[in-house]
Amino acid sequence: MITAAAFFRNRGKNVVTAREFAMTMSFDLRWMSHGDAEKLLSLLSGQGLVKREDEYVRPAFDVAAVDVPLGFKPPADLLKRTRPKRMPDGDLLSELMGKAGTMGIERKDFIVSVNAIQKRMNIDIEVAALLLLREKGIDISGYADTAYGVISKR
Hints:
By secondary structure, the protein is mainly α. It folds into 2 domains: 2-82, Arc Repressor Mutant, subunit A, CATH 1.10.10; 89-152, no CATH class. Helix content is 55%, strand content 6%. A 3-stranded antiparallel beta sheet has the order 1-3-2. Helix 2 packs across helix 3. The longest helix has 15 residues, at 107-121.
């Protein structure tokens, strides 16, 4: 979150293109390689810290509320420390529920909504959870393969 806040503060705007994000992180700020900057953007999007709309990227939080240290530079091992860990198959729904909670969706509301979608569409609960999160504007791209793996094992 600090890295994203530092980036948007440095740019002085709250909407950039994905290309501008990677170019600025790598060439202007010299914080990381271009490839790592693209990976970071994907990671930030997957964690719900930035919103991607078409080719544009904007923070999903109040950048001004984050305390960014003076002269901040992301640690060299940032991507290794923040890469999501492989979760056991039974924890996918819990992970999706946690993701919803970080975006302000109450646990009870999440469960009720997911159950309604599951019943209405006659689909697996994980798929219903993904549909709900996507409907709420949360990036689910990092969870699709995991959900497929969980469902295909049944």
